[in-house]
Design a protein that fits this description.
Helices cover 41% and strands 21% of the residues. By secondary structure, the protein is of the alpha+beta class. It is globular, with a radius of gyration of 28 Å. The N terminus is likely disordered.
Length: 537
């Protein structure tokens, strides 16, 4: 239930990630009342509880019984996801995105005799379309780039039928098919090159430009050949990545699974006609011995009373995947596919589901996750309190250190600290040793008084050298905490006994330790940047 007064909002804010994503205020019946996106979910949601003098906000909070979040990789992804969910649920407190408008597409009208390239929100039958594009300005810029490379028309049919070359022909952005300045077959080759480029086939588009350059040179049209060469050079630096977040069509369910001891955790993203229509999380006890068996058991139970999608996307196949697909197909009366996502758009959705599942595990049952960490990494202590350490500097100048703390899987900001490196000789390991000695040799009262609690686990940003420095401090000071070092390359974990492991990608264990490492790295970098800016040069 939502807490709406005084300090009672604190537990809600502590449970929210400081990441981009989408938040859903829901009624007691589980219906979305308001859906929004945020660059920082915790900051954005906290603002609602500081704005209760606003009648609309107060009414929203009074009607809300729960809050759900979905974490995304970026604010752009959050914007697309917000649009999908609002179109699917039409929540009453959302006053935008509910009409028939959508994000724009780039359309090439292949059904026309002389296809054009256009900025469009409604794609005609038979056209090639790229999108949706979350930034209208960038969409128009992309059209400009493609039309410059392949000289496609951008005028409407009324202008085209006049048969008069326009300004775009004179500035070499259109080959003027309206006036017969280019043959039909030659123009269609340019259209094919543009389609190849927008499909991401830059090599094929480049081959078409090289063919055009050679043909012009053979006709001794050296000026045209030079322009084709310049187009080819411009193509070399072209990338669709800044422009497009692709969306696939069809009904699919994306399922992430994690088995921690006898506890099974599952996340489901429902994609309907290419849009995320719903997200769900499940925590179920199970007697299964493997994640594959637990996933098979979950799928049987999930679709017992639910409509089946055309595809079920998973990170690894469930036990007896072939028999499962056959059984579900018979149940649906049509083909149902169970597929693993290794790359592309479905892999992006699967990564989103796994990341959100990891956050769900941290919040709902840290005891299971902590036990899994302790067992897998052979720790002596249950990792209730994890402290992360990192060093930041630029050429050994203005060296600083940072500490963050996570209690039961959640950031404990009152225990965060920043350090100035005072006496350590050059080197990251030496600086880390100084920070650790100061951390444990001195009483560090957290904000609010009292002594700093002893950590169960120290996580170091680095590898074997950092682990060696920590082992020395632990031996000298008689510390009882466990030690780990997490290296960015391969995301390899170095254990206290000198061995190393690479945790399963997307697993709650790996994502929690990455979260601690990334948080302390961010704090160290921020502190170092502030110090550089304040010190005289």
């Amino acid at each position: 239930m939502l807490k709406r007064s005084g300090n009672r909002t604190a537990p809600l804010r502590r449970g929210l990630p400081e990441r981009p994503g989408v938040y859903l205020f829901k009624s007691a019946a589980g219906k979305p009342l308001y859906i929004g996106k945020a660059a920082d979910l915790r900051k954005r949601v906290s603002q609602y509880f500081r704005r209760q003098d606003d009648p609309l906000v107060r009414r929203l909070l009074e009607r809300s019984a729960s809050l759900e979040t979905i974490v995304t990789e970026s604010e752009t992804d959050a914007l697309l996801l917000e649009s999908d969910l609002v179109h699917s649920h039409l929540p009453p407190f959302n006053i935008r995105l509910k009409d028939d408008k959508s994000f724009p597409f780039i359309e090439i009208t292949l059904a026309d005799e002389f296809p054009g390239i256009f900025y469009s929100r409604r794609v005609a039958a038979g056209s090639f379309a790229l999108g949706p594009l979350v930034d209208a300005r960038r969409a128009r810029r992309l059209i400009d780039s493609v039309s410059r490379l392949f000289r496609l028309r951008t005028c409407g049919d009324a202008i085209f039928r006049k048969g008069i070359p326009c300004l775009y022909h004179h500035i070499e952005r259109c080959s003027a098919p309206c006036a017969g300045r280019i043959g039909h077959e030659a123009y269609l080759r340019q259209v094919a090159g543009a389609v190849d480029l927008l499909k991401g086939r830059k090599g094929k588009a480049g081959a078409r430009l090289r063919e055009r350059m050679r043909a012009l040179a053979a006709r001794q049209d050296f000026e045209g050949a030079q322009k084709a060469k310049e187009d080819l050079e411009a193509l070399g630096g072209f990338s669709l990545r800044p422009y497009i977040t692709r969306r696939t069509r069809g009904d699919r369910d994306v399922i992430a699974a994690s088995l921690l001891g006898r506890e099974g955790f599952f996340a489901r993203l429902a994609l309907r006609e290419g849009r995320v229509s719903r997200s769900e999380f499940f925590h179920l006890p199970t007697l299964c011995e493997s994640e594959e068996e637990a996933l098979r058991e979950f799928l049987v139970d999930l679709y017992l009373l639910r409509p089946l999608p055309g595809e079920i996307i998973v990170s690894r196949p469930p036990a007896q995947a072939g028999e499962m697909a056959g059984m579900l197909s018979a149940q649906a009366g049509r083909r149902v596919f169970i597929r693993c996502a290794r790359r592309g758009e479905m892999k992006r959705f699967l990564d989103m589901a796994r990341k959100n599942l990891a956050l769900f595990v941290q919040k709902s049952d840290y005891r299971a996750l902590g036990s899994e960490i302790q067992k897998t990494l052979r720790l002596r202590n249950f990792p209730s309190l994890i402290e992360g350490f990192d060093i930041s500097h630029l050429g050994e100048k203005n060296r600083v250190g940072a500490k963050v703390a996570f209690k039961e899987g959640q950031p404990e900001k009152r225990l965060y600290r920043s350090y100035l490196i005072r006496n350590a000789p050059p080197g990251d390991s030496e600086a880390l040793e100084e920070v650790l000695r100061r951390r444990f040799a001195m009483a560090e009262p957290p904000r609010g008084g009292g002594g700093a609690p002893a950590p169960d686990l120290l996580l170091l940003d680095g590898g074997l050298p950092q682990l060696g420095a920590a082992r020395q401090v632990k031996a000298d000071l008689g510390l009882s905490c466990d030690l780990l070092a997490l290296a960015k390359k391969e995301e390899r974990l170095f254990l206290e006994d000198g061995t190393s492991v690479v945790p399963v990608s997307g697993s709650p264990l790996r994502l929690l330790l990455q979260q601690v490492r990334d948080e302390v790295h961010r704090r160290a970098i921020s502190h170092h940047r502030q110090r550089r800016e304040t010190l005289p040069r």
